[in-house]
Amino acid sequence: MTMNDRFLKACRGEKTDKIPVWFMRQAGRLLPSYRELRKKHGLLELTQTPEIAAEVSMEPVEKLGVDAAILFADIMLLPMALGIDLDIVDNVGPVVKNPIDSMAAIESLKSFDVKNIAYLQETIRILRTKLQVPLIGFSGAPFTIASYLIEGKATRTWTATKRFMLEKPEAWAKLMTVLSDATIQYLGGQIDAGAQAVQLFDSWVGCLSPSDYRKYVLPYVQKIFAGVKDKGVPRIHFATDTAGMLEDFSNVDAEVIGLDWRIDIAKGKKIVGAKSVQGNLDPTALLAEDSILFGKVDEIVDQLPSRDGFIFNLGHGILPETDHEKVKRMVDYIHSK
Ligand code: CP3
């Protein structure tokens, strides 16, 4: 049973007893117990083994005292369900065997079948019998997933992705359509199994100009948020490096907008409108000593005109070298404010 629902209340803009806090990438690399597990099992194997994946999702709740759990999964599980052959390589990330380079490659993708994520639904069911905090499901957004499918691996320039988008607009539109339709079913399948909120990670979309974002990406993001609205759970839209796109995000029908640290959170909240906000500490601040770190927490919390509708998080994923005991001290500090 969800005993602590302050995260869900904040998503809906309601008053909470304490500021809710969770961290992107909290499940996993940060905790010694996970690093031990990884010596024996590959990442994909862990995500596809419900009993173990549920353990990994629960660990940060127990050890850090966060107010929400996130499903232990990866954004690349969705394209895998569409028949994309890929591996996740240590210290590299996702590697796609045959990167997408044509309309024909897109047309040969399998259609999404919720049966292909039965293992994720099982993990969610196990988690819901054990967790006392809400469970967040998630998906990568179409642009971010497409960038891995086209580049074949992580990139910091997104050149192939942008060329594909500009030079093959019809194939791009097809790929975005296939991915956004699948995402609606993928998130729907997670919610049906028990996920109590969902977050869309558009981690790399900030590489686009705002006008390209509006033309090539925003309509598909809007379609996803509209497509899961009926399920009735809070929807979080997260992206990084998007200070120039925040006005466009106000046209996304989401309950919560996640912000990175490149904008003052109060200013970001004002631009996106009346929605709840989540963020936005620079993950590097967790490497500093407590007095400096807590000062940065104060800076974020104290600039907000109201604490209603605020969820404390980092501006992006927690860094692997972060000391989990320091994270715990920060969670306690946030809860004491
Ligand atoms: O970090 C983000 O921008 C969030 C979105 C995202 C996820 N996976 C979500 C995730 C992205 C961009 C990925 C791709 C991916 N998958 C990468 C990044 C590569 C790059 O381009 O920089 C990597 C390294 C992986 C593989 C992966 N996924 C590992 C090794 C792990 C285990 C734990 C960890 O963080 O090291 C994951 C799990 C994962 N990926 C989660 C999420 C939301 C699990 C739950 C959690 O947030 O704790």
Task: Report on this structure.
It is built from 16 helices and nine strands. The protein is α/β, with parallel strands linked by helices and 337 residues long. It has one domain: TIM Barrel, CATH 3.20.20. The protein has a seven-stranded parallel sheet. The radius of gyration is 19 Å and the shape is globular. The mean pLDDT is 97. The structure holds coproporphyrinogen III (CP3). The site of coproporphyrinogen III has 22 residues, from strand 3 and strand 4.
Short structural description:
The chain is of the alpha/beta class. Helices cover 47% and strands 12% of the residues. The site of coproporphyrinogen III has 22 residues, from β3 and β4.
The radius of gyration is 19 Å
What low-confidence regions span 5 or more consecutive residues with pLDDT below 50? none
Order of strands in the sheet with the most strands? 1-4-5-6-7-8-9
Question: How many H/I helical runs?
Answer: 16
Q: Any guess at the CATH architecture?
A: Alpha-Beta Barrel
Question: How many domain regions?
Answer: 1
% residues in beta strands: 5-15%
